[in-house]
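Each field is set out as follows.
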Amino acid sequence: MINFIIQLSLFFIILSLISQFLGKYMANVFEGNIYGWLKPLHTLEGFVYKIFKIEASKEMSWIDYLIGVLVFNAIGFLVLFLTLIFQAYLPLNQYHIKNMSWDLALNTAVSFVTNTNWQAYSGESAATYFSQMTGLALQNFLSAATGIAVATALIRGFVRKTTIYIGNFYVDFTRSILYVLLPLSIIASLILISQGIIQNFSSYIKADLLIPFKDSIKEITNQIIPMGPVASQEAIKLLGTNGGGFFNANSAHPFENPTAFSNLFEAFLIILIPASLFFTFGYMVKDKRQGWFLYIVSLVILISFMVIQYYYELKGNPILKHLGVKNTYPIGKELRFGLSGSSIFTTITTTTSCGAVNTMHDSLTPIGGLIPMSLMALGEIIFGGVGSGLYGMISMVIVAVFIAGLMIGRTPEYLNKKIEAKEMWSSVIITLIAGITALLLSAMALITKSGISSIENPGPHGLSEILYAYISAANNNGSAFGGLNANTVFYNITTALAMLIGRFFPIGAVLYMAGSLANKKLIPPSAGTLPTHTPVFGIWLAFIILIVGLLTFLPAFSLGPILEQMLMLKGVLF
């Protein structure tokens, strides 16, 4: 317990300090105030515009901005899909890896384009170095930059008045990569390499075993040890809240996450940009209190869930304890990091839309598994993904302001803009579309032979596995309960559909909202204006988030992890 409190305290103190500075830096970047020491990058930025014939000074309406987002991501999907289909014939095929099947390639391409990085395959045996670097890692940058650009456009909607313009997608996108993602990834890669994470292009190593498996059907005398450019992939997968892993074991693999420091550092990288964007929002709307407010509300909710996660995993399974088995909590967890490191990582990776894991979520206690599932079910709101977390939280604030305005009998306002039908419809789509999609597809899976044939565990845990899969896909997280065989045509197609809906429907709604807000006049605050940075409103916002997010899934959770917990306490085994 002491170790958990110390790690937790240091982690969030450092995060609170660094995210303020990064938030201010990003605000300056997206407002065009480039620091003097960034002149070389500014020159490179101009060169990029010249090569691709981008008119940096030409701004876009929300429709043009959305078209730019969709066309760019469609091209990225096509390139990645073809790369995976034909990877066996492309360079840097380190271990004679075969082409992916069409449905797996489709699922993987959609996954990485939507910033989900759901992996229905084992990275070291199903993807070549070429696919990893030029396909998957590239999309890690592009999808993260897309999220940041969309969030920036929404901020401009609050800042600007009586205009149809919300910025230029290609400018915002380019600056996200050049000034934010690329420099941070280089720094993070070097730190990860210093901890022992590998970075090479070596062929896979065949190592002789000290004690061969002579009693097996086929005698095993050696082991294949995968190599690869892992540190560079790891840095952007975490910073971009992409998730996935070079290896199937993900961040439990010693080549991806070798030390206790690397474990906390990787968790820090996951949440760094989402936390910093709250402060970017505060700086750009010229009210730092708003940034602090969103950060503190998210922080309080996250820590609350984190403590519950730790408590139930520490408590363990009473059935095993009744049988005299002590210290059952390490089940499914990397012993190098212990319960503290596992709980912190598990909650952070699911409160953001990352999906990188250092723990087998399928082996968590029922309530321990409910926590990451609930954090995803809240939507990309509590920090959320890069960019998507900010616009998800702002949408929930608008819902809270609108309901509060109705209760006190006045037109709701937020940041000197009236909240009307367009903003509410957009917010409803952003906050509910992922949940509706996850529940509908889960129901489809449970009533079809193709869906239930992949369940490897009976009873309520099997339901939890399906729920987790679609909640993760629709909220662009990418983590999974590993007991579900998701590499089938049915699950590859349906989870891909969930990822597309969960990513691009909210983006369309966000940009529509940004255009509507930018076209409004600024309204001076009055005595009747509802303060949106006070503790009272913070409690109200947290209440709305929990009600809207969790009540949607309460009936399903009651039949899954909650029922499993009750049966476990009664000593029922499946």
